[in-house]
Amino acid sequence: MGKRGKRSRTPKAQRTANARQIQSSLIHLLEVTESKDSILAHSSAKQILSLSRKHRLSLPSKAKSLLCRKCEIPFVYGSNVRTRIKNGMKIVTCLSCQNIRRYVVK
Q: Into how many domains does the chain fold?
């Protein structure tokens, strides 16, 4: 039988704090890994997104610039991402899935 309708033993605040801590460690791992270790970077990018969705956490601003939300791959500037600044907007294009994200430059 499954756990349908049963509560978790850990309180919600503690689960959220644990998820935030794991999220920050995965972001650090994504920042440190180089392009030569692409399997580790790809795995950590997928885990960051799935953890954020499961616990309903927003991605930190530094994580938004490190990975594509649509195809779940880490950005390697110069090979799979294009960045343009136009009319006060930072336009980031993923070259693998052609997804476009726009950020306001302050």
A: 1
The CA-atom distances, in angstroms, between 75 and each of 5, 37, 56, 71 are 39, 13, 23, 11
pTM over 0.85? The answer is no
Q: Which residues pair with 92 in a beta bridge?
A: 83, 101
In which domain, by residue range, is 90 found? Answer: 12-104
In a domain, 55, yes or no: yes
Quote the longest CA-to-CA distance of the chain: 57
Which pLDDT tens digit goes with each residue over 7-65?
A: 668 888 899 999 999 999 999 998 888 766 788 889 999 999 999 999 999 998 888 88
Decide if 72 is inside a domain: yes
Give the whole-angstrom CA distance, residue 106 versus residue 103: 9
Is 2 a member of any domain? no
103 DSSP assignment: E
